[in-house]
Amino acid sequence: MIFFSQHMPSHFKRVPLSGPNGQPGDKADSHIITHCIISCIISSMPRDASTCHVGVAFYAHRDFPTQWALVLADDPLFEGYVWCSNAAETTNGWRVSWTLRDWSPAAGSAFDPPVMLFAGVVHVAQISAPMGSLQAWIARRNFASEFDCFQVHASDDIPYGTDKYVTLALWRLREGRFINFRESDLKGLASRIGSCLLILQQHPPERNFFPVVPFESESGTIAFGRFMPSALP
User: Fold this and answer.
1) Contact between residue 118 and residue 212 where contact means Cβ atoms under 8 Å apart
2) Helix or strand or coil: residue 219?
């Protein structure tokens, strides 16, 4: 049995930042300072290859519906190697893809063609399982089956799309006792994840940083991951 933790990692901190005379500082500078603080905290933590962080990445475009993707990473800020998975509707029906990104969910596009703009990540849970094993577990159970893609099964269900694909993946992790949620149905879980997107939209990616919002958090708590390690802030 693999046990889960529904508590958010301690490195997600609400950091008050101010400029001269107590006035709010520059937004870009706040990203840099916040990232430095979080990086120092994370660097002092022991790394465990058997821990995987699960999140939901959002990709937006003004002319298209916002797309959801499931993301898995060893790093709580989703830096380093990241598995990205999404569902796309094709002429042959819905198809699921898995792509291993070499630095962050923003390294390349999770969609083809890459018309969607990366908006950030909602950190859902930290799970005591290796990233590769968890990816294989999800892929065997969440593959856009005919049953999954049936329009709506009940009043607590939602139509199939990228949001339902991701929500089903998280729900199956719950059924496998990897994660626990207070929501009792898919619709409630999807709605709560969607509300986190509103927080991300208040902190759009800037320069070399993208927002990471904890799923289990108080309002205002946010962290920042880096797009690329070598890029200047």
Assistant:
1) no
2) coil
- The residues near 182 (Cβ < 8 Å, ≥ 6 apart) are none
Q: Which of 80, 74, 27, 78 is nearest to 229 (CA)?
A: 80
Please, where are the H alpha helices in the chain?
Answer: 27-43, 131-141, 146-149, 162-175, 186-201
* CA 107-112-116 angle, 5° bins: 65
Q: For the segment 79-113, what is each residue's pLDDT rounded down to a tens digit?
A: 989 999 999 888 888 999 999 988 888 765 544 44
- Rounded Cα distance between 7 and 113, Å, is 36
Taking CA atoms, 27 is separated from 19, 23, 204, in Å, by 10, 12, 11
**In angstroms, what CA-CA distances link 30 with 26, 35, 200, 208, 214?**
6, 8, 16, 12, 18
Query: CA–CA separation, 31 vs 92, rounded Å?
Result: 43
The answer, as to whether pTM is greater than 0.85, is: no
Single-letter amino acid, residue 149: C
- Residue 229's pLDDT band (cuts 50, 70, 90): low
Round to whole Å and give the CA distance between 168 and 146: 14
Q: Token pair for residue 87?
A: 């569902």
What are 157-191's pLDDT values in tens digits?
888 999 999 999 999 999 999 999 888 889 999 99
Q: Which helix (H) or strand (E) holds 199?
A: helix 186-201
What span, in angstroms and rounded, lies between the C-alpha atoms of 119 and 201? Answer: 7
